[in-house]
Formyltetrahydrofolate deformylase (Fimbriiglobus ruber), 1156 residues
Amino acid sequence: MAPRSTKDTAILLIDCPDRKGLVAAIGEFLYRHNANILHADQHQDPERNVFLMRVEWDLAGFDIELADFPTHFGPLAERYGMRWKLERSDRPHRLALFVSKYDHCLADLLYRHQSGELACEIALVVANHPDASRWADFHGVPFHHVPVEATGKDAAEQKQLDLLAANGVDLVILARYMQVLSPRFVAAYPQRIINVHHSFLPAFSGAKPYHRAYERGVKLIGATSHYVTDELDEGPIIEQAVVRVSHRDTLDDLLEKGRDMEKAVLSRAVRWHIDHRILVYGRKTVVFD
Amino acid sequence: MAPRSTKDTAILLIDCPDRKGLVAAIGEFLYRHNANILHADQHQDPERNVFLMRVEWDLAGFDIELADFPTHFGPLAERYGMRWKLERSDRPHRLALFVSKYDHCLADLLYRHQSGELACEIALVVANHPDASRWADFHGVPFHHVPVEATGKDAAEQKQLDLLAANGVDLVILARYMQVLSPRFVAAYPQRIINVHHSFLPAFSGAKPYHRAYERGVKLIGATSHYVTDELDEGPIIEQAVVRVSHRDTLDDLLEKGRDMEKAVLSRAVRWHIDHRILVYGRKTVVFD
Amino acid sequence: MAPRSTKDTAILLIDCPDRKGLVAAIGEFLYRHNANILHADQHQDPERNVFLMRVEWDLAGFDIELADFPTHFGPLAERYGMRWKLERSDRPHRLALFVSKYDHCLADLLYRHQSGELACEIALVVANHPDASRWADFHGVPFHHVPVEATGKDAAEQKQLDLLAANGVDLVILARYMQVLSPRFVAAYPQRIINVHHSFLPAFSGAKPYHRAYERGVKLIGATSHYVTDELDEGPIIEQAVVRVSHRDTLDDLLEKGRDMEKAVLSRAVRWHIDHRILVYGRKTVVFD
Amino acid sequence: MAPRSTKDTAILLIDCPDRKGLVAAIGEFLYRHNANILHADQHQDPERNVFLMRVEWDLAGFDIELADFPTHFGPLAERYGMRWKLERSDRPHRLALFVSKYDHCLADLLYRHQSGELACEIALVVANHPDASRWADFHGVPFHHVPVEATGKDAAEQKQLDLLAANGVDLVILARYMQVLSPRFVAAYPQRIINVHHSFLPAFSGAKPYHRAYERGVKLIGATSHYVTDELDEGPIIEQAVVRVSHRDTLDDLLEKGRDMEKAVLSRAVRWHIDHRILVYGRKTVVFD
C-alpha cells in the first residue's frame, strides 16, 4: 500500500470511457501546473471500455488554487467525458460510527483511529443500545443513543440524519449495526455508507450467517465489507476475508473467529475509503492499493 | 497429518451416541487383542450427543484375523449402538476418475498417484470427451470414452456403471466431469462419489460460477470438494479453499487461479477419503487429520 | 476448537513413552471413577516414541476429590512413566501483562478478556513506560510502572518478581515488552512466559525485524508467539502467521500490517495456554485444538 | 492480474530517478506515435527517489517500427536518465528447464505451458538425472542429460552453456535443480535465472530446509522463488508462499505440502517474468500485477 503522505496532497479520481491520449493529457495537465506526482494508478477494463485513474500529488509548488481547480480541469474533463472528484488530504473525512450491541468493530476502529492508522475525524458514535458509550467516552468521541423501536423507525432515522448533518458527517460506518436502513437514508449517503456482513457474500446473505454456515458444515467462514445499497447485502463489495474452521469448532468458536475477520475487513474498507482509493463502477469496486 | 504407515494396519471408524465408558471399552478391546495403536482421534458433538472415532493400529501382533473381526467386535458395537467400518491398508480403494474436457484435475491426480501421495489404485479413467486419453495412456491407466448424448444419458450411465462394477471400483472421482449424475447412479455409490465444484459453496452453486463471481465483483474466489448427493452441490463438504482476486484479474485469470484451487481441494478430499479420515454425519463431514 | 465448557471440568495432560495399553488404562481409570469425558486428544510421535494426551472431563459425578487425585492416579502414572499435570477449569490462570510503549497487544488482550474469549484472571499490568496505564485503568486492572534503567535492571526485575509473587501470577505475557529477561527471571517461570516476536521465526530473530524484512524485499511478513527460554527468540514456537506485502508497502505499512498479526498470534497463544491445550516436548509444542 | 492480450503488443519497462514530468513525457511520446495503451503501472520509491514503470500498448496503429524505437525513444530516455527495455509479445522468451530428480515442478511447468498459461517457448529440458526424460518426451520437448560429477563440474557447465546458446535460450528455470551454479554461469544470465528454494527465505537458507523446519517446530513452512545471484539463496525474491503445519505432520508430510508451494511460487515467478512484469532494483523486485 502506498504511504500516506505527511505533506498536503490532492487526489484526483477519474472515471471515463477509455480513449487514446488520456494518460498523456492528464500527465501534461499536471506537469504544466507543476504538480509533483507522488502516486498514480490506473485501470482499464477493455470489456466495458472504461478507464479509471487515481493520481495523488504534492500541493507544494502546484500553481492552481484548489478552489479554482474545476475551472482549469473542466475543459479537459469535458473533452474526455470524465466523471471526476478532487479530494484533499487536509480535509479529512468525518465519520459516524453506528453500532448496536456488539462492540468489537467499534473498539477496533476507535483504537486504529487513535493509533494513527485512520486519517479521518470520528465525529460521533450513534448506537441503538446504551452499552457502547463507555468506548466512546474512553476515546473522547461524542456518543448519541438513538433507540430504534419497531413503531418509531422513521423518527429514529430522522434523528440520526439530523445528527449526521449537524456534525458534518460524510461517511457512515455500520460497525455491526443491526438495523436495516431505509431507502431514504441510503439515498442520502450514496456510496458513503459502509457495512460489514458476517459472511462470505454472496453466501449466507441475510440473517444469522454463522448459524447457517455452521449447519451447512462449511470449512471456511468469511466476512465482507461493502457499500450499502437498497438491496440488502447486494452493494459493491470492498473487501472479504475467510478463516478456516473444522468440526472441532462450535458455533461459539465461529462467532469468535468471525469477529476477528469482521474487524479486519471493515477497518480495511474504512482505511481505503478515507484514503480515496476506492472507485465504484457497475456493481464492483476498484481498490487502488 | 498423521503419517501413512508403511506397515499393514487396520483402521476402525466408529459413529454412535456419546456415552460414558466408550473410550475405555474400545481401548480395552484393542489392548486385550494386542493391538499396537498408531493413531487415535475422536470427536464429540455435545449438541447432537454424537461420538465419532478413528483408530488405526499395526496388524503385527494383533491376535484377531480380520475376517473374524465382526464376530469379536460385534457384541461391543451392539452394546453401544455403534455404526462402524473396518478398513485395511492392504486393501486400497479402487478409483474411477471421471473427466470431461478440462484435464487439470485429472493430470494432477494421476501425478500425485504416481508420486506416491495417493495410496490407492486408479482402475480406470472414464471420459465423455476423447482428449483425456493421452494422460491415461501416459500413466498406463485404462481409458474409456463414454460419450453422453442428451438423448442417451441412461444408456451412457448404464455403460459407466457396468465399467465400475467390472473393475471393482469403490470410489468415483468427478474430476471436473461436466455431467449431472442421475439419482440411480448416486444411490449406487453413497458417500463414495467426490465432486469438485468451482466455487466457494454455497455461493455460486450451479452453472458458470466463475462468471457469476466475476460479475458480482467478489474479492476472493473459491473451490469446494464434496460428496455427491441427489441435490446438486448440496452434499457434505469435504474441503474448501479460496484465493484473492482483484480488479486487475480478468475472467480468464479467475479461471486460471481457480484451476489451482480445484486441484488442491479435490486432491485433498481424495487423499483423506482413501486414508479413511472422513466421517459423514448429518450434512457435515468430520475430517480426522 | 473444542468449546470451553461452562461446567466445572478437569483437564489431564500426559507425556510419556508410547506403549501398548496406555489408552485403555487411562480410559478405564476415568470410567471406573465415573468421569464423563468431554474431549480427548492424543498424539504419538513414532520417531521419539512419545505419547502425549489431553483429556477433559465433567467433574459432576466424578468420584475422586481432586485433592486426592494424585493418590489415585499416581500408581498408574508410575507404571507407564508418565509426566502429568491436572488442571481445573475453576482455578483459572492468573496473568501478568508486560508491556513497553506499543499498546496494541495490550489493548487487544484486555478486550478479549473483557469479551469472555480468555478464561483467565488478569492480575496486573507491568510496564516500563507510563503510557499504558490508561488501558489498565479503563479495564479496571491494577497497573504498575516499573522503569528499567540500564544500570538498575536487576533491581527492576526483583521488583517485578515480587509483584508476580504477591499477586499469585502463574503466567507472564510479554505483550511487545521490549526488554530481554534475565536467566534468573526465565528460570522462575519455566514454560510460563509467552512472548510475541514480530517476525516469522527463525527469520529475522533479534532486533528490528520489520526493517530487515523491508530491506530484504520479502513478499510475506510474519509474527511468532513462543515460550521464552534463555536463548533469545529460540524458545518453543506456539503460533505463527504471515501477511502478504508488496513493493507498494512502505516500512510503515509493514509495521501496521504486522501489528494485526502480532495481536493474532499472541492472543491465540494465550488462549491455548490458559485452556491447557499446549504440551511442550523437546523444542516443539503440541497444540491440541 | 492484467490479461495477456491476444494482440501483438509492445511492453516498455523503465527505471530512472523520479522527476516531475516523467508521466507526461512518456504519455505524450506514446500518444504522438498513436499507441493504444492497454495497461500502465508505475511505482515511485520516495526513499531512493526511484521511478519504475511498465506500459503495454497495442502495436496496431503504432507509427514507429520497433526496430527504430531506440532512435525515437532514445533522446527522451537520455533526458530523464532512464534505463529501459522494450519487449514484444510476438517474441516470446525461450526457456530452459533445469531439473534433477524431483520432477513435480517440471511436470507442473510443462502442464501450464501446454494449457496456455505460460506464453513462452520451452526450448529444452536439461537434467543431471535421466528420469525426467519421460516428461520431456510426453510434452515433445528436447531432453538433454548432462551428468554433473564432482570432478567434472566445469565441463558439465560448459556443455549446459553451449546447449543454451545453441537453442537461443534467454531464461533459465531451476525447477528443483540440486546443483549450485558457478559465478561464471550466473554472470552469463544476469536476472535471467530463476530458482525455487524450499523454505520461506531468509529462514532455512541452504541445505535441507524441511528437515530443519521440522526440527525447529515451526507452525508454517514456505517456499520462495528468486533470481539467482552469486550469493546462495540471497538473490532478489520474486514470490513466496507458506502453508500451515502442525504436530500431526511428519517430515514426509512437510515435503508433500512443500511440493505444492514450490510449484505455486515457481510457476508464478515464471509467468511474471515472461509477461515482463518484474523489475529488479537494489536487492528487491517490483512485480507489476
